[in-house]
Design goal:
With about 170 residues, this protein is mainly beta. The chain is built from one helix and eleven strands, in the order αβββββββββββ. The longest helix is centred in the first third of the chain and has 15 residues. About 5% of the residues have low confidence.
């Protein structure tokens, strides 16, 4: 009978242990993103809340977004499911990534810093919360060096009437 070297037994035990070890589950995560680099007063911008690590069904409820003195309107949710199957040396592994993106239209009334309260997404026993965030909103610069003027007749006009108008750009 032939003896098996200790090194081979130890190496096989380590490889088997790594292959059979439980893999950590993907944790739930929620992030805030703003579409655009610069935000301006009285110009709506898009705020997105991305939730990852949740189950496909049921879809999480849209969170309430609280930004003091701003108009916030929920626009909808876009679920995304990505599946991947990988076969390496005859071993098959599957992974699935589910992301829910909740979109909001935000309008800030004036320039300044605005605080976004933490946003929580919950689904059954799973939940995740964002950190508080700050939005820096700038004023739109104005100048009298550029002016647009629309000229039309100085008399009453009626619907359907054909008239001559001019647009002056100074």
């Amino acid at each position: 009978m032939r003896a098996v070297p200790r090194f081979r037994i130890t190496a096989l035990a380590i490889v088997a242990g790594l292959a059979l070890a439980p893999r950590p589950a993907r944790a739930e995560r929620v992030t805030l993103e703003v579409d655009g680099r610069e935000l301006y007063a009285n110009v709506p911008f898009m705020l997105s809340v991305a939730a990852e690590g949740f189950d496909e069904d049921p879809q999480p409820k849209a969170p309430e977004i609280a930004i003091a003195n701003c108009k916030v309107a929920f626009l909808g949710v876009s679920p995304s499911v990505q599946s991947m199957i990988q076969i390496i040396n005859g071993r098959r592994s599957e992974s699935r990534r589910i992301t829910f993106v909740f979109r909001y239209r935000v309008t800030a009334p004036s320039a300044g810093a605005y605080a976004v309260a933490p946003v929580t997404i919950a689904q059954g026993s799973k939940s995740a919360t964002t950190q508080p965030a700050r939005l820096e909103v700038q004023a739109i610069e104005t100048s009298n060096e550029m002016l647009v003027r629309l000229n039309w007749p100085e008399r009453p006009v009626f619907v359907g009437e054909t008239l001559t108008v001019s647009l002056d750009w100074y």
